Automatic annotation (TrEMBL):
Location(s), subcellular: Mitochondrion
Protein name in UniProt: Isocitrate dehydrogenase [NAD] subunit, mitochondrial
Isopropylmalate dehydrogenase-like domain span: 37-362
NCBIfam families assigned to the protein according to its UniProt record, in alphabetical order: mito_nad_idh (TIGR00175)
GO molecular function, one term: oxidoreductase activity, acting on the CH-OH group of donors, NAD or NADP as acceptor
GO CC terms, sorted: mitochondrion
Major location category of this protein: mitochondrion
PANTHER family registered for this protein in UniProt: DECARBOXYLATING DEHYDROGENASES-ISOCITRATE, ISOPROPYLMALATE, TARTRATE, ISOCITRATE DEHYDROGENASE [NAD] SUBUNIT, MITOCHONDRIAL
Annotated organism of origin: Steinernema hermaphroditum
One example of a Gene Ontology biological process annotation: tricarboxylic acid cycle
Length: 376
């Protein structure tokens, strides 16, 4: 939003979006003796160490959450662990997850990440890309929510075959039902989060039927049911160019699966890279919290150098989804102070601090802001 100056960017806005606005999106099921149970899937790369940091923070702050950990990673080519993980997600209704490496050289290894989102029908992927003061970037004052259809557009799900040798057919499959629900989610999200404009990203000039349907559904819904939200359509190539040249013009971007994947990564890059942004996945029943760009960060694993911000913000999103708003604010503020007031930065954003230094600082900040003082 062009009018939003950096000065207005309060620490609270840093991590503030509410994913559970759609009436069908239920609060999670598992709660015993006042405590929530959340499935934890550490994944590959830096995932396991990031989960340890999250557990340490939660235990220090006495957040009422217990984690049920299920190991699921690329070393395990057997589908049984995937079924265990899915059962745990269904039982608890909510999960936090590291990324699982997808092996290119194993044709039979279906992406665990895609499979989990598909089986839990987590059709909306939401990223909040917002500039953080003190993080060096080319552009300032960015505040974009990216909402991506997360389950179809099968060119993304690997629906492809070799018709005759040397000829591959890759199928993109979209349905009115799924376009309608992601469009509905987006406008409801805009209304609930007081956002003003939705930009639908498409390639309907070429893909007249598939992207044409996407555009038509979004446009009709905007006009008929959300006249108070500004709606615009933008072709994906132009949207990419606009995003890197004048990103402040965007408020919410609504996107089909593949464009959403690429545009989200561009947007994360604009606000500082893969270590900073969290990604929410929600459907009508379940919710899953992970990092926005879904990297494994394998080269950084075990070195105590990865930026923990994206994972901690995933934990903040999760707390807010659980209805633990005061706890979410407390953790978000502690992280924000570490990044901006104490100005502790890891190498990916030009600093030289270790991961554990940031975690210690977050814990110090939590210690000096007791729960009772939370009166925002
Ligand atoms: P992919 O999973 O797509 O193979 P990588 O895991 O290799 O991607 O991550 C892409 C890049 O992002 C790498 O340069 C990696 O170092 C960097 N990166 C990913 N996560 C983080 C993080 N948390 N902190 C710092 N850098 C990160
Ligand atoms: Mg990787």
């Amino acid at each position: 939003m062009a009018s939003k100056s950096l000065a207005l960017l309060t620490r609270r806005h840093f991590s503030s979006i509410r994913p559970h606005i759609y009436p069908g999106t239920r609060l999670p099921h598992a709660k015993y003796g006042g405590r929530h149970t959340v499935t934890m899937l550490p994944g590959d790369g830096i995932g396991p160490e990031m989960m340890e940091h999250i557990k340490r923070i939660f235990s220090f702050a006495h957040f009422p959450v217990d984690f049920e950990t299920v190991e699921l990673n690329s070393k395990d080519l057997n589908a049984t662990s995937l079924e265990f993980a899915l059962m745990a997600c269904e039982r608890n209704g909510i999960a936090i997850k590291g990324n699982i490496e997808t092996k290119f050289d194993h044709p039979d290894f279906i992406s665990r990440n895609v499979e989990i989102r598909r089986r839990l029908d987590l059709y909306a992927n939401i990223l909040h890309c917002v500039s953080i003061p003190t993080v060096p970037t080319r552009h300032k004052g960015i505040d974009i929510v990216l909402i991506r259809e997360n389950t179809e557009g099968r060119e993304y799900s690997g629906l492809e075959h070799e018709t005759i040798k040397g000829v591959i057919e890759s199928i993109k499959l979209v349905t009115r039902r799924n376009i309608e629900r992601i469009a509905r989610y987006t406008f409801e999200f805009a209304a609930a989060n007081n956002r003003k404009k939705v930009t639908a990203v498409h390639k309907a000039n070429i893909q007249k039927l598939g992207d044409g349907l996407f555009l038509q559904v979004a446009r009709d819904m905007a006009k008929a049911e959300y006249p108070y939200i500004e709606f615009e359509a933008m072709i994906v190539d132009n949207a990419s160019m606009q995003l890197v040249s004048r990103p402040q013009q965007f408020d919410i971007m609504l996107m089909p699966n593949l464009y959403g994947n690429i545009i989200s990564n561009i947007a994360c890059g604009l606000v500082g890279g893969p270590g900073l942004v969290s990604g929410i996945n929600v459907g009508d029943k379940y919710a899953l919290f992970e990092t926005g760009t879904r990297n494994t960060g394998t080269a950084l694993a075990g070195k105590n150098v990865a930026n923990p911000t994206a994972f901690i913000r995933a934990a903040v999103d999760m707390l807010r989804y659980l209805g633990l708003d005061a706890d979410a604010h407390r953790l978000s503020d502690a992280l924000f102070a570490t990044l901006t007031e104490q100005c502790l930065h890891t190498a990916d954003i030009g600093g030289s601090e270790k991961t554990s230094t940031l975690i210690d600082s977050i814990i110090d900040n939590l210690a000096t802001t007791p729960k009772e003082a939370e009166a925002h």
